[in-house]
From TrEMBL:
Transmembrane segments: none annotated. Gene3D superfamilies: Aspartate Aminotransferase, domain 1 (3.90.1150.10), Type I PLP-dependent aspartate aminotransferase-like (Major domain) (3.40.640.10), Tyrosyl-Transfer RNA Synthetase (1.10.240.10). Residues 655-666 have a biased composition (Polar residues). The keyword Cell membrane does not apply. Keywords: Aminotransferase, Pyridoxal phosphate, Transferase. It comes from the Bacteria. The lineage of its organism: Bacteria, Bacillati, Actinomycetota, Actinomycetes, Kitasatosporales. It comes from Wenjunlia vitaminophila (Streptomyces vitaminophilus). This is Aminotransferase class I/classII large domain-containing protein.
């Protein structure tokens, strides 16, 4: 959190403390003016900015919290709204040290509220956060009966102001609240912290007595600010007044309308606004920006407010970001990842490591053959596609032999050529399609050519082109003993249909197709690759393989991943979602990119390059700098899933330093691939 945003939170906290002064005195709440001050006083981690007061019962100071201490979170209602999102962010910040969330659900629709809340917590945490939902079962009922036995109705009547008109359901509500504060499931530390609001302060008067009845530890209570009403100053948003709060399930038009009509902290006149600046502590519009947009965006909005910018201009600028932030916080993006079946399969295989693995891995070859639609004799597995490619280079090597490839491309091809003492001849790619130039490759092909390397999609640009037309042209030019290495390790992500493997091998018997389980199956660490070729050529490759080349753990991982088609499709779809999200941003900013069919994207940042790549490095986001391919100003980023590309999106949106398409050395962008630029 920036200093200015922390100051805004502190000012909002002071206002809340002033409004709740009577309740603070009555129940012993300790206002938190600034989280930084509290951190210095207690030596504890800084509290989230929305925490305006604390309360400890039975001790003068709160005890030190461990990672095993629960963070108690309770929520109710029928519809998820901004107040729940604020609670989710606070919970995510509190769980940053690895603590578990202990969820207590009193909502009318548990499934939607709990699932939506969990999604929001993961969004704000940037990762999954462990939690446990308390189920209402026999153990909890017995515990509640014992806890309530320590309370007396006369005290509750005085505390809550109950009279003859109070509904009996008030006792049920109290029972749920006592459980929220005190109940701890087996295996978790008692106490911890409970995230509450000022309306729950009266419950604290009963907690010590109820805790003694069940021999439980009372948690430290952290009081959060409630999300302000969009309509009236000094009030909280209320579900009874829909115009005062944004609900997660509001449609986009409704969210836009509520934001544009929300109360601001503007001054009485334009002159006062210009001279004094706005008051963001009174502005519900800024509260939405601060909650839903990246901190850098909120900081810019706050700076503009303090400098006297008009509220209308501020809302117009941040309308799209607020809507997008709401959807991002409440829509769980697909996540790429290894199949959940791999772990158990590998653990089971680990119990038999005293035995040798299969000598030839024929069962794995059969499983890959079935998935690829070819005969099992046409599959050759190895320790990664790199190893199997090495075998192909080896059997094709001869004195004076040559390898033909496209540049730029995957550096491995040249390394393998040099390893086997083959000359490496490269043809520049087609600058209008960012893929192989069949005419240029054909001109390089001569009687010395032993191997031609084609990657589909192209390993730098992700472009595909016309595969069969390219192969037809090459085989016309290549000598009869030359082979085409067709690298298809990214083919799982291709949306443009290409010929099935069986048809390609039938039509081009001197082509060898390479695949990998590192990409769409997420088994990079297992190193499982394979080649598909006609049987005589596959047999020649297999002859290069040492016995027992595949270890038992890799084989077990590969078999389990092949069986889990749902996980495979989820990873592919997650990449497609990341592609759509990132390319939409690039279009909005006018940044050129190449239409990709792989799980990576090549884009021209122009003079934005230095600023954006600096932000990517600081966030730990890996990327490839285009200078490695003599393309200054360009970068390539993998499209793993939406969370993976978010740092680049944020860096692009925050950057104001450069213009697009100003790289001094870059390919032409006039092809139809760049209609717009286009979104796949």
């Amino acid at each position: 959190m920036t200093t200015a945003l922390a100051t805004w939170h502190a000012a909002c906290n002071r206002q809340t403390a002033a409004r709740e002064e009577h309740r603070s005195r009555q129940f012993g709440l300790r206002p938190v003016v600034c989280s930084d001050d509290r951190a210095q006083q207690t030596g504890k981690p800084m509290l989230p900015g929305e925490v305006w007061a604390t309360q400890t019962l039975g001790a003068s100071q709160p005890s030190t919290r461990s990672a095993a201490s629960p963070i108690r979170v309770g929520f109710a209602g029928r519809r998820l709204h901004l107040g729940h999102l604020g609670l989710a962010r606070t919970a995510a910040q509190m769980a940053d040290s690895g603590a578990h969330l202990l969820l207590f659900d009193a909502s009318d629709d548990s499934t939607s509220i709990v699932d939506g809340f969990r999604t929001a917590v993961c969004h704000y945490a940037g990762a999954s956060v462990p939690d446990q939902l308390i189920e209402y079962g026999p153990d909890l009922r017995r515990w509640q009966h014992q806890a309530l036995s320590g309370l007396r109705l006369d005290r509750m009547r005085r505390l809550y102001g109950w009279d003859s008109r109070t509904p009996a359901s008030a006792l049920t509500d109290l029972e749920a609240m006592i459980s929220f504060f005190l109940y701890t499931p087996a295996g978790m530390e008692e106490g911890g912290v409970a995230l509450v609001d000022a309306m729950q302060a009266p419950h604290s008067a009963l907690l010590p007595q109820a805790a003694r009845a069940v021999d439980a530890k009372v948690p430290e209570l952290l009081y959060r600010r409630l999300f302000p009403s969009l309509r009236r100053e000094g009030e909280r948003g209320s579900v009874r007044e829909p115009s005062s709060v944004v609900f997660v399930d509001d449609d986009e038009a409704t969210v836009q309308r509520k934001f544009l009509r929300s109360r601001t902290g503007g001054r009485a006149s334009v002159e006062e606004q210009c001279s004094l600046g706005g008051d963001a502590t009174r502005c519900s519009a800024f509260a939405m920006i601060e909650l839903l947009c990246p901190p850098e965006t909120a900081q810019r909005a706050l700076d503009g407010c303090l400098s006297g910018r008009s509220c209308g201009d501020c809302k117009a600028e941040h309308l799209t970001g607020v809507v997008a932030g709401l959807r991002a916080a409440t829509t769980a993006p697909l996540r790429s990842g290894t199949s959940s079946q791999v772990g158990p399969a590998v653990r089971q295989a680990a119990g038999a490591l005293h035995r040798p693995p299969p000598r030839d891995a024929t069962d794995l070859e059969a499983a890959i053959a079935e998935r690829s639609g070819v005969h099992r004799d046409q599959v050759v597995v190895g320790h990664g596609s790199t190893e199997v490619m090495d075998w192909l280079f080896r059997i094709q090597a001869r004195p004076g032999g040559k390898v033909v490839a496209t540049e730029p491309t995957f550096e491995l091809y040249q390394e393998l050529a040099e390893r086997h003492r083959l000359r490496y001849a490269a043809a520049a790619w087609d600058p209008s399609t960012f893929t192989h130039d069949s005419s240029a490759l054909a001109r390089l092909a001569d009687q010395d050519t032993a191997l031609c390397v084609i990657d589909v999609p192209h390993s730098v640009s992700g472009a595909v082109g016309q595969v069969t037309e390219l192969l037809d042209r090459l085989f016309e030019a290549l000598p009869d003993d030359a082979v085409v290495l067709l690298d298809l390790v990214y083919a799982d992500f291709i949306r443009t249909p290409i010929e099935p493997a069986s048809l390609l091998l039938s039509r081009y018997p001197r082509a060898v197709l390479f695949g990998s389980m590192s990409k769409a199956h997420c088994l990079l660490g297992a190193r499982v690759g394979y080649a598909l070729g006609v049987t005589p050529l596959a047999d020649r490759l297999r002859a290069q393989r040492l016995p027992y080349t595949m270890d038992s753990l890799a084989i077990a991982a590969a078999h389990s991943a092949l069986r889990d088609d749902q996980s495979h499709q989820r990873t592919v779809q997650a990449s497609h979602e990341a592609r759509a999200r990132l390319t939409a941003t690039l279009q909005n900013l006018g940044i050129a990119y190449v239409h990709t069919e792989g799980n990576f994207l090549l884009m021209d940042l122009g003079t934005r390059h230095a600023s954006v790549t600096r932000r990517l490095r600081s966030s730990g986001t890996p990327f490839r700098d285009g200078r490695r391919w003599s393309m200054p100003g360009w970068i390539q980023l993998h499209l793993i899933d939406v969370p993976f590309v978010e740092p680049l999106i944020e860096a692009l949106q925050q950057d104001t330093t450069g213009k697009n398409g100003t790289s001094s050395h870059r390919p032409s962008l006039h092809d139809k691939t760049f209609e717009g630029p286009s979104v796949p």
